[in-house]
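<instruction>
Derive structure tokens from the sequence
<data>
Labelled lines for chain and fold
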Amino acid sequence: MFVSLRDHRERLIARIGEVPHKGAFSLVSILGLVLIAYGFALYRRSGLIPVWCPPDFLRHVSVALMCAAFVLVAAAYIPGRPVAHEVAAGRQHGC
């Protein structure tokens, strides 16, 4: 409940109090975990749900682009910055 919106969160806490805010936040968090468990159980019951499958002739291209993306993301953490904006370049390739 307004985790990243600090000013809204502070106004909400001032309006309802800290303890009720923490209780509501806990209930929403528990509800989220329950929904994750329910969705996972539903997935296990129904089997694999293919979100995206590349065409057969592009399968090798997507693997090659993913390899390049992983290398570029890893390069972001090497001192000396071998590539400018490595993470952005890696995300453009799909990582």
Observations:
- The chain has two domains: 6-46, 56-92.
- The longest helix spans residues 18-46.
- The radius of gyration is 22 Å.
